[in-house]
Amino acid sequence: MMRAVLWIAVATVVGILLGWLLFRSPECPTCPPQQHNNSEELAMLRMENKMLVAMVRAGLSGDISSHIKSFQSMNRLPNSTSEVQSQQAVTTLQPESFANREHANQLFARLDRADKKLQKQALAEGWASGERLVRERQILWQQARRQLSPFDYMAALHQAGRPNILIIDSLGGQSAAIKQGMQPGDIIWRIDGERVLTRQEYRAQLGSMADDVERVFELRRGDQTVTVTVANPNKTVAVIAQTVEAFE
C-alpha cells in the first residue's frame, strides 16, 4: 500500500516538472539595441524623393530616355551618405537642364507661329520684300536669343529646323586669313568675342563697324579652335548656314 502511494507521489512530481518544462515561456536573450543613423536615413529618404520626382517629370514630359535613367537610378539606391551626396548633385541638375530645354522648345514654338503670321501679314499688306519684314523678324527672334543661353538657343533652333551654325564656304582675296589657318568648312564660333549662330547675328556683328576694320574670327574645326584676323569679311568671306545638334 505504501509503495503504491509512493509511486503515485513520484508520478505526480514528474508530471508537474514535465508540464513546467513543456509549457513555460522560452526566455529570449536580450538583444542589444540597434544603432540607427538618423542623418543617413534622412539623406536616403531625400534621395528617394528626388528620384521619384525626376522619374515622374521625365514620364510626364514624354522623355523616355530620362524616364529609364530615373527608373534605373531608383533600382540602385546608394548605400552610404557619401554616395547620396555625390548623386544628389547629379539628380538635381537633370530636371533643371530638362526644364530649360523644354522652355526653349516651347518658346520657339510660340515664336515660330508668330513668325509665320508676321510673314502672312507682310505678304497680304505688300511689304514682304522690303527691309521692314527682315527687321520685324529679327526683333521677333531676338526675344529667344535674349532669354536663352547660346547652347539652349542653338538646341531650340535645331528643334525648330532652323539653321544654327555658319560655315565658311569660300574665301576671296584673303591670303592672310588662309595663311593664319582659315579654310572652307570651318565653323564660325565667335566674331570679336561675340557668339554668332545665325546669318542675322553675323550681319549685325559685321555691320557694327566699317568694312576696312579687321575682325577677329574664332573658328571650330573638329576638336580644334583656330583664331584668325580677317579684313573686309563682308566682301571676302562667303558663308553657308546649316542646322546641327547643339554642342559646346
From TrEMBL:
It comes from the Bacteria. The keyword Protease applies. Transmembrane segments: none annotated. Keywords: Hydrolase, Protease. GO terms for molecular function: peptidase activity. Residues 173-230 form the PDZ domain. One of its GO terms (biological process) is proteolysis. The keyword Hydrolase applies. This is Serine protease.
